[in-house]
Design a protein that fits this description.
Blueprint: E1 4-10, H1 15-26, E2 31-36, H2 40-49, E3 55-60, H3 66-79, E4 84-87, H4 99-108, E5 113-120, H5 126-143, E6 156-159, H6 160-169, H7 178-188, E7 193-200, H8 212-232, H9 234-242
Parallel strand pairs: 1-2, 1-4, 2-3, 5-7
Antiparallel strand pairs: 4-6, 5-6
Length: 245
């Protein structure tokens, strides 16, 4: 039986994060809001929206980065006894109306990661698309597959036992490099990926914490480490891909 909480990492998203929490609660779903060292104004807004047990607020005293916040939320969901966690960004770019669709897929594929595959509107910056495609190519190389159609989308459902075992047993990137790395490493462990198209927008008043040079450097180093890891696992990956069904 699926028992899911929605994990929302927040760093100075303020009113946008509050609207996201309210939209999730309107669907009747419990939330875990992770305050990733936000400023006082945002922290006060999150305090106001917290309403245990339906909205649990996890507060990190120092900014960890998106990955660090998501990992804190996943561990909190497991402590609550949940079977799954749905990760969604706080900046309003994901369509909350698709949450039931993601959860329905998780019910039908309880051991899989349900991964958002963005369908962009006309506002998406072309530079973002090019950078994302470069990451996708490296992910396809590092998994020897096309199973992960989009590794950067922060709208996904995790089976909690598998993902928490991974994050507790491996040193994963804590910033924007988390989203692709956790998928590659779960794929290496044999966790299935189910891709779900979903509309993604870039709000005009959205808050982005992507640091062009720093985060791209972290992502490049991540791809290098994963490539070395893929080479070490190459016999297993090839056997899985080419061996008997």
């Amino acid at each position: 039986m699926l028992d899911a909480a929605v994990v929302i990492p927040v760093y100075n998203h303020g009113a946008t994060a509050v609207r996201m929490v309210q939209s999730v609660r309107a669907l009747g779903l419990p939330c875990i809001v992770v305050d990733d060292g936000s400023d006082a104004q945002c922290a006060a807004l999150l305090d106001a929206v917290a309403a245990p047990p339906q909205v649990e607020l996890v507060r990190l005293p120092v900014n960890q980065g998106k990955g660090g916040a998501v990992m804190a939320g996943l561990r909190a969901a497991l402590r609550q006894g949940r079977t799954h966690a749905l990760q969604i960004d706080a900046d309003g770019q994901h369509d909350v109306r698709d949450i039931p669709l993601f959860l329905d897929l998780a019910r039908r594929h309880p051991a899989a990661v349900i991964c958002g595959q963005p369908v962009y509107d006309a506002q998406v910056p072309r530079s973002r698309l090019i950078a994302r495609y470069a990451t996708h190519v490296w992910v396809w190389i590092n998994t020897l597959s096309l199973d992960i159609r989009d590794s950067m989308c922060g709208f996904r459902v995790y089976p909690l036992p598998a993902v928490v075992a991974l994050i507790d047993g491996a040193r994963l990137g804590q910033r924007m490099n988390f989203d692709p790395e956790v998928l590659v490493r779960l794929h290496w462990r044999g966790v299935a990926i189910v891709n779900q198209p979903t509309r993604v927008t870039y709000p005009q008043d959205g808050v982005s914490h992507f640091r062009l040079w720093h985060d791209n450097l972290l992502i490049s180093w991540m791809h290098t480490r994963l490539f070395c890891g893929m080479l070490l696992r190459l016999p297993l990956l090839l056997w899985r891909k080419l061996g008997p069904a």
